[in-house]
Amino acid sequence: xxxxxxxxxxxxxxxxxxxxxxxxxxxxxxxxxxxxxxxxxxxxxxxxxxxxxxxxxxxxxxxxxxxxxxxxxxxxxxxxxxxxxxxxxxxxxxxxxxxxxxxxxxxxxxxxxxxxxxxx
Length: 120
Known about the structure:
The chain is of the alpha/beta class.
């Protein structure tokens, strides 16, 4: 069980990682896996689930991006229904953040937009 927050005297804020694109290279819960985990996570006194985070496939179409980000929003709602504060929705990167914002993102990752492409 997660008791590390207790030794600090307060819970640690966390985002639940989701793998909604089904890619083997990504970790995280699927929507069906998250349902039973939402209640279990609520029983862990050392963490406070503040929301979810996900990445869409880099090759996703606009329609697939909307679908992935809508599923993330549904996952966040699952956590809220299980008693988590879960106000954060971290999704979207430089290549798809506009759609993520349309779908309700509260956090986006803009590394390439801000700093340029990585050197190969």
